[in-house]
Design goal:
heterodimer, A: MetI-like fold, two-stranded antiparallel ribbon, B: alpha/beta, D-Maltodextrin-Binding Protein, domain 2, 2 domains, 21 helices, globular
Chain lengths: 293, 444
């Protein structure tokens, strides 16, 4: 009887397991396999040759890899950090249920609903020195020096501009998740805090923020993972330039795969990006992880 | 019941077979594949020169009875799509319309086959079609050029012919204002017309891309330099290369600040809106500039080949040569039909009739066609620029060529013009990358 139950359990699990294998495990095994070969797509005459960990050795020793890792981390920390601060602030503001709050909430979601390619083109136009309103606005208030050289041609400012674009597009997402968290908060802790004479500042930092941890964690993890994959806006707005100043990891993978056609090294950098994403996620869970209620 | 089932099993398929056969016979459908018309499957990007030869497809199909099927991709992902279809072994294309830069990779991989039959059929073709000489690998022709153009400068003829401007220029520089024939006059003219914010001296393409790299290679070649030497080692980081990249940086002083972020299309837009006196591009841009619907300078744009250093104006030096043409897939099902189409599209008269739609004929004989010259008055200037140079592809004709130019050199030039590295540092870095790549790929 027990064996029959076990067999039934297995038969119920099997389709799901097979599906997971097909969707997750097989592509992952293939991707790892690609990192172990030399495969130059534009040179099929060289063949596909097993090289062991050679690609890892080359990629990890390349200065470009570490520079693009550095740029990616700077971008992720800057953009996601700002999105978190702004997202929480806007969510707290919209949680006051004033007249028009729902309308404002809907309007604020528009950037988040736009395709990143469209966002890239729109911002490329906005910051264009000849036709864009932003440089003209900055010049009219005496800040013309910021846009000379143009923002996207300035190696020091191009990456921060991409971060601003990211903040513009994805702050509404953080706001939405945090707002959902705020709406679901119990009222009792706030009533208790009020009864104890806590100030608004104390209530926010001692009650609201700790209770919001699960929502914040979800928003930060999702945003970090998507920010690590930043590609479209870089492709449209800067092409990785000026110089290599906006060449983040995903763009570096693209460059190796579809400009150099070195699939082995592109796959290797992809795996490194995956490991970084996993490490950051673990780090978040450990530092702002949620205690069991 | 059993008997009924037997009847159904036997009679129903027989009835379906009879009905289908009758219907096919009545509709005149071919009975076997032998009598089906030959089909040639073309693949191309979405561009003006494709539009030009597309205009010939209907007439060819009517004349030859060969059916043409065309698949088009946006330029941005066309090569990737083509490569993926070939590498997956699922390519169903007979005639890929490709860039000159791509055929070395496709030929080396065995994805396209030689088209020597076509060249052998017409003895005068080699001399009439100069671009053919750039499509040879190991003595075999892999591509028949359909569109070609050379790098140069497009200038505002109305400004250059304005008596007041001429007088002012002469007073300032001591010689006559004329289309730039040497690098010094090119710089002087750019400086002369630099009147921001209404008019800029020249439009350049400063965004990191293969377009930016062309500003460097234009000057490198004009000064007598080369990208790779005979032993395939990088040679662009020579003293001539350093001078060339510094010259590019210097020219940006006379361009609009926004020029530093421009790609090809944005450069075309700036010049066509009358915001600059010159633009450093290549010949097909003339179609855009002379389009009255989108260009404010239509009728006033003129072309001249890229200038040489002062005193060497008549030296036979390389000039940027861009070409697209027809190739034949190694797995083409009907090579004869494919070659028939290519031959038809590149016939003298067909070239002349299709060219105004958006191509520049690759046959010298077609470039002399009076009707064509009447429609495109800049054709003689193009012919002159082509005849007085060594046509040199935008990138070395090896599979790694586009990577060297579009990645390593473009990055180096971008670093120099934005001040993130000195000319020597940036070019030496690019040379080291090139050296490493070619070594890894077995060139030495």
């Amino acid at each position: 009887m027990a064996r029959l139950v076990d067999r039934n359990k297995l038969s119920f699990l099997l389709p799901g397991l097979l599906f997971l294998c097909a969707v997750y495990a097989a592509p992952m095994v293939y991707s790892i396999g690609v990192t172990l070969v030399r495969w130059i797509m534009i040179r099929p005459d060289l063949g596909i040759r097993f090289v062991g960990l050679h690609n890892y050795s080359v990629v990890l020793r390349a200065v470009y890899t570490w520079l693009s890792v550095g740029r990616t981390l700077v971008f992720v920390v800057g953009a996601v950090g700002l999105e978190l601060v702004l997202g929480v602030a806007i969510a707290l503001f919209l949680n006051r249920n004033f007249f028009g709050a729902r309308f404002l909430q809907s309007i604020m979601l528009i950037p988040f609903m736009m395709a990143p390619i469209v966002v890239g083109f729109a911002w490329r136009f906005l910051v264009n020195n000849e036709t864009g309103p932003l440089p003209n606005l900055l010049s009219s208030v005496g800040l013309g020096a910021i846009v000379n050289p143009p923002l996207l041609a300035n190696p020091r400012l191009a990456l921060p501009v991409l971060a601003v674009v990211d903040v513009w597009q994805f702050t509404p997402f953080v706001m939405l998740v945090v707002l959902a968290g705020l709406k679901a908060l119990p009222t009792e802790p706030f009533e208790a805090a009020r009864a104890d004479g806590a100030t608004r500042y104390q209530t926010f930092f001692r009650v609201t923020l700790p209770l919001l941890k699960p929502a914040i964690l979800v928003a930060v993890v999702i945003r970090t993972l998507t920010a690590l994959r930043l590609f479209d806006t870089v492709f449209i707005m800067t092409g990785g330039g000026p110089g290599n100043s906006t060449e983040v990891l995903s763009f570096y993978v693209y460059r190796l795969a579809f400009e150099t056609y070195d699939m082995g090294k592109a796959g290797t950098v992809g795996i490194i990006a995956l490991l970084i994403a996993m490490l950051l996620t673990l780090l978040y869970i450990r530092t702002i992880g949620v205690e069991k209620q | 019941m059993k008997r009924n089932a037997l009847y159904l099993t036997l009679i129903l398929p027989a009835a379906v077979f009879v009905m289908t056969s009758t219907a096919l016979y009545a509709s005149g459908e071919p009975e076997s594949s032998n009598s089906a018309p030959a089909v040639v499957r073309l693949v191309s990007e979405r561009g003006s020169h494709t539009e030009a030869w597309k205009s010939l497809m209907a007439a060819f199909q009517e004349k030859s009875g060969i059916k043409l099927e065309l698949t088009q991709y946006p330029y941005a992902n066309y090569f990737n799509q083509l490569m993926l279809s070939f590498t997956s072994g699922k390519s169903e294309f007979d005639v890929p319309y490709i860039s000159l830069l791509w055929y070395p990779a496709l030929a080396k991989a065995g994805y396209i086959q030689p088209v020597n039959e076509l060249v052998d059929q017409e003895p005068g073709l080699k001399s009439d079609m100069p671009g053919l000489s750039t499509a040879v690998m190991d003595g075999k022709y892999y591509m028949v050029p359909y569109m070609n153009e050379v790098g140069g400068v497009v200038y505002r003829a109305d400004l250059f012919n304005d008596p007041k401007e001429k007088q002012a220029f002469r007073a300032k520089y001591g010689y006559d204002l004329a289309p730039p024939t040497n690098l010094k006059s090119y710089r002087d003219i750019a400086e002369f017309f630099y009147r921001p914010p209404n008019l800029y001296g020249v439009t350049l393409m400063g965004r990191k891309s293969i377009f930016l790299a062309t500003h460097f290679t234009n000057r490198l070649w004009a000064e007598g330099g080369t990208v790779l030497d005979a032993s395939m080692h990088p040679a662009f980081n020579s003293a001539v290369g350093v001078e060339a990249v510094n010259e590019v940086k210097d020219m940006f002083r006379f361009a609009s600040p926004a020029s530093r972020t421009y790609d090809f299309q944005e450069a075309l837009n700036e010049f066509s809106q009358g915001k600059s006196a010159m633009v450093e591009v290549w010949t097909t841009s003339m179609f855009y500039f002379n389009d009255e619907k989108s260009s404010k300078v239509a009728g006033n744009a003129a072309f001249v080949g890229f200038p040489r250093p002062a005193g060497q104006e008549n030296a036979m030096r390389p000039r940027l040569f861009i070409s697209w043409g027809f190739s034949v897939s190694a797995k083409a099902q009907n090579k004869t039909a494919a070659l028939d189409w290519i031959k038809y599209a590149t016939e003298d008269n067909n070239f002349a009739s299709a060219a105004p739609i958006g191509t520049i004929p690759t046959r010298l004989s077609a470039l002399k066609n009076p009707k064509l010259i009447a429609e495109l008055p800049w054709i003689p200037a193009f012919r002159e620029a082509l005849a007085t140079c060594v046509p040199t592809p935008i990138a070395p004709l090896i599979p790694e060529g586009p990577t060297i130019i579009g990645q390593y050199i473009a990055t180096a030039v971008s670093q120099v013009i934005t001040g993130s590295a000195s000319a020597e540092e940036a070019l030496n870095g690019a040379a080291a990358e090139t050296d490493r790549l070619l070594k890894e790929h077995g060139y030495y």
